[in-house]
Design brief:
By secondary structure, the chain is α/β, with parallel strands linked by helices. It has a single domain, classed as P-loop containing nucleotide triphosphate hydrolases (Rossmann fold), CATH 3.40.50. About 40% of the residues lie in helices and about 20% in strands. The protein has 10 helices and 10 strands. The chain has a 6-stranded parallel beta sheet with strand order 2-7-1-8-9-10, with helices on both faces. The protein is globular, with a radius of gyration of 17 Å. The two termini are about 15 Å apart. The structure holds adenosine-5'-diphosphate (ADP) and magnesium ion (MG). The site of adenosine-5'-diphosphate (ADP) has 16 residues, from helix 1.
Amino acid sequence: MAGIFVTGTDTDVGKTHIALGLMAALQQRGLCVAAMKPVSAGCELDGSDGDQGLRNDDALQLSAQSSVAIPYRTLNPYAFEPAIAPHIAAQVVGVTMQLGVLERACAEIENQADVVVVEGAGGWLVPVNARQTLADLAVALRFPVVLVVGIRLGCLNHALLSAESIRARGLTLAGWVANEISTQVVCVEENITALSQRLLAPLLGRIPYDRQAGAERTAASLDVGPLLESISVKP
Ligand SMILES: Nc1ncnc2c1ncn2[C@@H]1O[C@H](COP(=O)(O)OP(=O)(O)O)[C@@H](O)[C@H]1O
Ligand SMILES: [Mg+2]
């Protein structure tokens, strides 16, 4: 049983894009890969799978890439309609999110796959309730962390703070991904070099700006070799 926790320097930095690519790359190594989006905000009501409920686009994409069919409520236990901070969205509907619920759902998925790719929400320290953050879920799951860095002005600080906090919690930063989320960024090369010198974790890939890229194409720019060591899965 093994998993990876995918976090990012911010919201909209490419966590889903990279999580899908990582799933495809792990599948190409012969692994049975499932996914989880523990908490989502920005959902629409849908019942086309026979189970009426709120659906999040990230979770649906991850589900479509999964090697095994996981019930929606298991892969995305907490789904909220407004696209706002999840713990605030939860408050609006009188829900207190509990890590235990997420841990149990994840264990269920782990039983059905070689590797579970868990996509966080927002950045590393997004709150889930009054006391805890998604980082506490990563700690509870004890999964190595992959940090997706959206290359843009400000990413150095966000990336280094995230890496420091990941390690301060005793977790392994199994690798990071340089995601070129815009064509308008200057000094891309210098930013990636600066991070390579400071993050002290393997650069799993540099993902070019490509709006059309599907999981397979993203996978071609990723090296999951160092990840396989962290999660001790033998393909
Ligand atoms: N390398 C890339 N090239 C082009 N567009 C990208 C790239 N990575 C992400 N995007 C786009 O940027 C937006 C945010 O990416 P997403 O993966 O949803 O981020 P997050 O999961 O961190 O919120 C999406 O529209 C996605 O298609
Ligand atoms: Mg996402």
